Design the sequence.
């Protein structure tokens, strides 16, 4: 008997009138947990009853505690007929199950009814007494903390990152059970809500078990989703990153003995290849000199060669099956090291991380976006206890992702996420992430056992460009790319554009501000059934991906930027169309070359009227100029081209081919250069192309005073002030005429998204200067001819004055700070391979990676496989880069650099120690735990919500647990409730209210990493009916304002370093 | 192609004061959009008409959802559905309960019944306040009336606490409730020149001096009903006009005091008896509910109009009334000084307020 759950019903208020005669209500409450039910007395004739009940005690297994919600039902007593239900409250007691979180849940909860919405409130107190039986603990997974946040939570330190955890559970959807025909809509909705609540609990418990098995104590970046598969069932699945987190307490100094060598800034390794320092285990090696052996010098020279990407780690391409014998110049030891690292990670079945931001130094190189999609036909889940089919589907996709990452020379995938889109029986599974190389130094001791270097003598390569350096081998690139030397360190190669799904690393050097870039696309398809439908969809997918990437690339160039962060591509399937929406935050990375312009060309010279072309060209050039101004992109001028880059920039002409157009040789005759840079060519060969270019130009820039991004941090803005407004907006468009063209649809869809943005700007104009952060668009095709777009984002105000100066100093400082705090960030690599049976009915998967390269050639690598095994590589052209003279020059430069490196190495010690010295400055930021319940004088606690992991101007002092709520609302009086908009408006407001109430009851005052993961809306206006399902999640936290904290921090100023975000507010 | 559904919900409820006012004023969404466009809000953020329409719809919906809460403003502070900063809540309530003086002037003193509500469309046409706005205002009056009807304690304070209104607005509501309860006639043509604020002032005087609450502050309806005993006692004042000696004595005292201080002395002297009879008769008749209703019309007919026709200035009138009141104290045989003061104090200030064009 490991737990005792106690609940007390205190009072109710604002109850609805249930007895028309007296205008009053005789309310009583049923409290249910598992199969036990208690009742309060009836409080007669009151709309504000005071029950003040005894403590209802439930003695339960902790397994149940994890799975089951506490169910509170408020009823109206009726002597003669059945008691009428007023509404229910489900309380997830999970936050009470781990000691660090909430100790009591107490507060006013909205009483919710799926038909009537919120009907009054009830005051409840819930406590849990857990018997500290550690063995029992292991069977459930009580105590494992969950975080939606996709970075290391603010008041924790990751001592170990274990890796990917996933789980899914399936069940029949109550809505589709036979009993649904005879029960009321209310009963059916409640059955569904309860089932999903149970399934989420179970899922979380199972994931928790996996984490415990791995030796972790927390899941970060927890992402749980529902697949409403209709007839075939209900799937709840989740992924996350298992970690071992240490709570940073104000009394401990995290940077004393847990740290590795004090003079080694972790960031300093950013430029290094993972292999050389791979086996350095920070905890164990007190004495490093033992490793100072000849090996070291060999290593370092090889590293230098790596700087030129001459040596090729063999394993990179094995995943691709394209012959893995590339490493001609690599020393055997190097290769071996690389292999060791690789295998260490490969032992993990999936070296995936759902995190999107990392402590400095953790992320070494970023390869590019890897994504995979697969179209499946749903069939009934026969045995809910063995969800093998779904498991296998995901397994397959993940394998694909893994192999793509390998093809990019990366051993890990970060910023990983999964999603589905379902229409009738067709389901598109999608996964995407960013291929990356992580710093193996953080890997656990014993994973590697040979070769090591002394970090003290390592050159500190600039942390602000390291991640841009290509991880793959230049001579054997997985796709043709145009490489140049890093504009920052001038030592390693960088691509000309970089696409990623992660957040912009805090240490990255950027010029100007970022902006939201979206590619939108509609594709009509014929209505079809079954396999024919699935085939049609999968045939369309590669073209959609291609088009979306083309759009993204063009828009990126148009804004004069060269990298995308937080890229999220959603493809949504409807009966007669597919919608694609790609969102990302564009930014100018100073390490990457300046983007070339966009050149317009006719199919043949003098084909179309040249006037027309030149006018378009002018518009484009003007737009680019305007955007440069708008986003303040003034990259630092490079002193002298010759000094930095040993090789004259290869002038590659890149062309953007429309998917159907063939290459035309005349192009080489045109002057394609735009300024000195390489240009992008848009060919105008038909009216479609003209349309496309026009659509390129319609994207209106945000009005003055506004910026927008879809990432955690807005590149170029860090001085947030306290204004925060989270919002959700839903728009549904009905397409009236049946004979729409793709072009027409595109226009409509683009306008829909643009208008939404315009609406936001207008509504939030009072917050100027402000930035819309974490703009998360979700598209759906709920019915034929309907397009639904759901957006959740947060508007944050910032201080306009300080913007410029901040950016310069910030990154370095921040880097060191976080380094102190989170240096210990090892990656646990252990074998966890489970066999997977792949059984495919009709499967066609499309996969794609978007690394730092040009789309025009064959960045789009499409692997299609029909059935199992067979795969066709569609990549058409080969690399056009001439590497012939390359190697020669390299060797001379190698010498030069070697000399250079020595100098730098010596200098490094100094730099680091100076960083050391500056850290105590920050140590003053310790926190004091304040009373968690005194937030302002209002009777209702103000609860802030944000999709970001932080709240500006505040510091999170406690994570109270995960909020994961699922609600259904239905109405049979749609008109009376103000039509569909009125219905959904009040439902969303109600959902917010319930989230806030739960957070407040936990003692919290904010929700971070909030997201609305599902908003399924169905209507039947003829019957005056509508139904909506909403799933939201986030982390309940207590945060205190920075100023409060500082004033009260004078006493205890131990090694508590401030969180990265909070710095921005000071 | 049409927008089927369009909502925007903020964690902190977003409300534009301008749109709120338009909503309160009973503008339809389309009209509100027009007004906003003319107001130039579009230039602010490069908005288009669609954006404005969508925003206006959102706000209107929000207000409609809030309206239920505004009916019992105390709920607004502890409801959970909308997160509204306290200063915003105050603004919402204050504006919701604000009313048009032109409208309230029409219903002032009328029974707040269904019958009156039916006449609202006429009032709407007359005052050019939209019917919707008229209904809201009328319902507000009625709601406040209903709530305070059953409460003990001071009227203004009750209104302020129950409806969380500012002192000024609470006083206005007290006046409205007071007028509605006593059904004072305010609609006659002769009273048309008086504004709501004039009446509100008078009501304040009456409430604080003539009601039960003026003497006992823990009775029900204490501030709404006039003090019956006092009204009864007012009959005693008749002696000032029925007793010939007293009347003459009073007149001579007043005239002595006034002589040389005003240009209209002759007129004052000439109409003293008439005016005095007028005021005392009003006092004596107040036991009849019917005559209470006519209190203001009587004041105008019996006092203000004669004075005005004699071209008294406001200062003259003040001077006259001051001496008229004070002189009575010197009359040895006049024993009802307390009642006299209680009566004249109010009448004096009411007339001061009402004596204008």
Sequence:
């Amino acid at each position: 008997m490991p737990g005792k759950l106690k609940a007390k019903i205190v009072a109710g208020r604002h109850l609805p009138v249930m007895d028309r005669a007296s205008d009053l209500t005789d309310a009583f409450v049923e409290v249910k947990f598992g199969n036990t039910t208690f009742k309060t007395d009836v409080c007669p004739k009151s709309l504000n009853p005071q029950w003040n009940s005894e403590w209802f005690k439930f003695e339960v297994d902790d397994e149940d505690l994890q799975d089951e919600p506490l169910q509170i039902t408020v009823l109206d007593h009726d002597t003669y007929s059945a008691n009428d239900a007023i509404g229910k409250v489900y309380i997830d007691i999970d936050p009470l199950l781990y000691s660090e979180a909430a100790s009591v849940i107490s507060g006013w909860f909205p009483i919710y009814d799926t038909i009537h919405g919120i009907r009054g409130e009830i005051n409840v107190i819930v406590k849990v007494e857990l018997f500290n039986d550690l063995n029992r603990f292991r069977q459930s997974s009580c105590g494992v903390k969950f975080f939606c946040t996709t970075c290391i939570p603010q008041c924790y330190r990751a001592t170990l990152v274990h890796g990917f955890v996933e789980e899914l559970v399936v069940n029949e959807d109550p809505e589709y059970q036979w009993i649904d025909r005879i029960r009321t809509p209310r009963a059916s909705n409640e059955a569904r809500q309860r089932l999903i609540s149970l399934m989420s609990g179970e899922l979380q418990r199972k994931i928790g078990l996996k984490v415990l098995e791995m030796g972790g104590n927390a899941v970060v970046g927890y992402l749980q989703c529902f697949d409403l598969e209709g007839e075939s069932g209900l799937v709840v699945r989740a992924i996350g990153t298992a970690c071992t987190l240490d709570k940073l307490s104000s009394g401990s100094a995290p940077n004393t003995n847990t740290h590795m060598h004090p003079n080694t800034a972790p960031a300093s390794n950013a430029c290094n290849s993972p292999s050389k320092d791979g086996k350095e285990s920070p905890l164990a090696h007190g004495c490093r000199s033992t490793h100072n052996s000849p090996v070291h010098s060999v290593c370092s020279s090889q590293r230098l060669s790596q700087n030129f990407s001459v040596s090729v780690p063999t394993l990179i391409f094995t995943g691709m099956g394209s012959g893995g014998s590339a490493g001609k110049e690599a020393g055997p030891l190097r290769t071996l090291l690389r292999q060791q690292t690789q295998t260490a990670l490969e032992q993990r079945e999936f070296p995936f991380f759902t995190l999107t931001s990392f402590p400095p130094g953790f992320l070494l190189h970023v390869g590019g976006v890897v994504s995979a999609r697969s179209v499946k036909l749903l069939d009934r889940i026969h045995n809910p206890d063995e969800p093998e089919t779904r498991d296998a589907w995901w397994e397959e996709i993940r394998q694909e992702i893994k192999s793509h990452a390998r093809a990019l020379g990366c051993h890990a995938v970060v910023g990983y996420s999964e999603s589905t889109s379902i229409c009738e029986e067709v389901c598109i599974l999608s996964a995407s992430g960013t291929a990356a190389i992580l710093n193996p130094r953080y890997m656990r001791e014993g994973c590697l056992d040979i070769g090591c270097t002394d970090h003290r003598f390592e050159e500190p390569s600039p942390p602000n460009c390291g991640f841009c350096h290509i991880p793959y081998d230049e001579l054997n690139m997985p796709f043709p790319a145009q490489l140049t030397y890093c504009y920052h360190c001038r030592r390693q190669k960088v691509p000309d554009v970089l696409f990623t799904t992660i957040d912009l690393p805090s240490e990255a050097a950027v010029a100007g501000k970022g902006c939201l870039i979206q590619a939108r696309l509609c594709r009509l398809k014929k209505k079809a059934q079954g396999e024919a439908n699935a085939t049609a969809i999968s045939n369309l997918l590669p073209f959609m991906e291609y088009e979306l990437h083309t759009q993204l690339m063009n828009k990126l160039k148009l804004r004069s930027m060269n990298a995308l962060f937080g890229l999220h591509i959603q493809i949504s399937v409807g009966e007669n169309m597919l919608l694609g929406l790609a969102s990302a935050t564009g930014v100018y990375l100073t390490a990457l070359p300046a983007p070339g312009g966009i050149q317009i060309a006719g199919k043949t010279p003098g084909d179309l009227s040249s006037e027309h072309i030149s006018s378009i060209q002018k518009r484009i050039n003007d737009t680019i100029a305007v955007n440069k101004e708008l986003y303040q992109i003034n990259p630092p001028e490079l002193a002298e081209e010759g000094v930095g880059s040993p090789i004259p920039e290869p002038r590659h002409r890149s062309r953007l081919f429309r998917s159907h157009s063939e290459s035309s040789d005349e192009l080489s005759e045109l002057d394609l250069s735009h300024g000195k840079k390489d240009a992008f060519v848009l060919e105008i060969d038909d009216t479609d192309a003209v349309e496309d270019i026009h659509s390129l130009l319609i994207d209106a820039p945000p009005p003055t005073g506004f910026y927008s991004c879809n990432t955690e941090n807005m590149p170029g803005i860090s001085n947030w002030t306290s204004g925060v407004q989270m919002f959700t907006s839903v728009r549904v468009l009905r397409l009236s005429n049946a004979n729409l063209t793709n072009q027409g649809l595109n226009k409509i869809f683009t306008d829909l998204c643009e208008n939404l943005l315009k609406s936001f700007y207008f509504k939030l104009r009072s917050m100027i200067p402000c930035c819309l952060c974490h703009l998360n668009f979700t598209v759906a095709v709920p019915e034929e001819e309907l397009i639904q777009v759901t957006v959740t984002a947060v508007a944050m105000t910032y201080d306009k004055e300080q913007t410029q100066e901040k950016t310069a100093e910030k990154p370095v400082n921040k880097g060191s700070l976080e380094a102190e705090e989170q240096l210990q960030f090892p990656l646990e690599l252990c074998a966890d391979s489970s066999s997977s049976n792949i059984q495919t009915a009709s499967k066609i998967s499309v996969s794609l990676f978007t690394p730092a390269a040009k789309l025009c050639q064959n960045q789009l690598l499409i692997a299609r496989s029909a059935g199992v095994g067979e795969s066709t590589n569609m990549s058409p052209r080969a690399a056009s880069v001439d590497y012939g003279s390359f190697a020669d020059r390299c060797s001379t430069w190698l010498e030069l650099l070697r000399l250079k490196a020595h100098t730098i190495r010596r200098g490094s010690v100094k730099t680091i120690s100076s960083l050391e010295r500056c850290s105590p400055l920050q140590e003053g930021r310790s926190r004091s735990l304040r009373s968690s319940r005194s937030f302002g004088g209002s009777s209702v606690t103000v609860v802030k919500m944000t999709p970001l992991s932080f709240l500006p101007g505040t510091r999170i002092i406690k994570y109270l647990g995960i909020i994961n709520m699922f609600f259904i609302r239905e109405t049979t009086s749609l008109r009376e409730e103000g039509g569909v908009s009125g219905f959904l408006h009040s439902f969303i407001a109600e959902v917010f209210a319930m989230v806030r109430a739960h957070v407040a009851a936990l003692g919290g005052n904010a929700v971070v990493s909030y997201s609305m993961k599902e908003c399924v809306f169905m209507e039947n206006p003829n019957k005056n009916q509508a139904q909506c399902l909403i799933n939201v999640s986030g982390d309940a936290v207590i945060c205190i304002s920075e100023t409060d904290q500082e004033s009260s921090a004078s006493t205890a100023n131990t090694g508590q370093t401030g969180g990265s975000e909070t710095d921005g507010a000071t | 192609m049409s927008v089927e559904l369009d909502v925007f919900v903020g964690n902190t409820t977003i409300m534009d004061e301008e749109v709120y006012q338009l909503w309160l004023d009973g503008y339809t969404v389309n009209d509100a959009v027009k007004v906003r466009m003319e107001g130039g809000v579009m230039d602010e953020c490069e908005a288009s008409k669609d954006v404005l329409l969508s925003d206006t719809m959102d706000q209107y919906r929000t207000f409609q959802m809030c309206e239920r809460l505004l009916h019992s403003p105390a709920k607004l502070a502890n409801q959970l559905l909308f997160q509204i900063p306290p200063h915003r809540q105050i603004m919402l309530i204050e504006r919701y309960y604000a009313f048009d003086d032109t409208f309230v002037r029409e219903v002032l003193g009328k029974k707040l019944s269904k019958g009156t509500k039916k006449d609202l469309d006429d009032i709407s046409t007359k005052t050019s306040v939209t019917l919707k706005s008229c209904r809201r205002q009328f319902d507000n009056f009625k709601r406040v009336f209903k709530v305070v009807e059953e409460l003990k304690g001071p009227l203004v304070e009750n209104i302020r606490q129950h409806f969380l209104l500012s002192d000024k607005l609470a006083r206005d509501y007290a006046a409205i409730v007071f007028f509605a309860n006593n059904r004072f006639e305010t609609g006659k043509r002769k009273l048309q020149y008086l504004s709501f604020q004039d009446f509100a002032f008078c009501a304040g005087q009456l409430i604080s001096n003539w009601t039960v609450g003026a003497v006992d502050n823990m009775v029900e309806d204490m501030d709404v009903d006039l003090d019956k005993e006092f009204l009864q006692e007012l009959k005693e004042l008749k002696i000032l006009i029925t007793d010939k000696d007293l009347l003459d004595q009073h007149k001579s005292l007043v005239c002595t005091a006034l002589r040389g201080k005003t240009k209209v002395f002759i007129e004052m002297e000439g109409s003293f008896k008439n005016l005095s009879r007028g005021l005392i008769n009003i006092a004596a008749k107040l036991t009849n509910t019917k005559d209470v209703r006519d209190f203001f019309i009587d004041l105008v007919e019996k006092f203000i109009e004669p004075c005005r026709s004699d071209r008294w200035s406001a200062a003259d009138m003040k001077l006259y009334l001051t001496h008229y009141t004070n002189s009575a104290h010197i009359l040895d045989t006049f024993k009802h000084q307390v009642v006299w003061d209680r009566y004249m104090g109010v009448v004096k200030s009411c007339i001061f307020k009402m004596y204008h064009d």
Remarks:
- The first strand of chain B starts at residue 2 and ends at 10.
- Chain B has three domains: 17-97, 101-188, 228-354.
- Chain B has 21 helices and one strand.
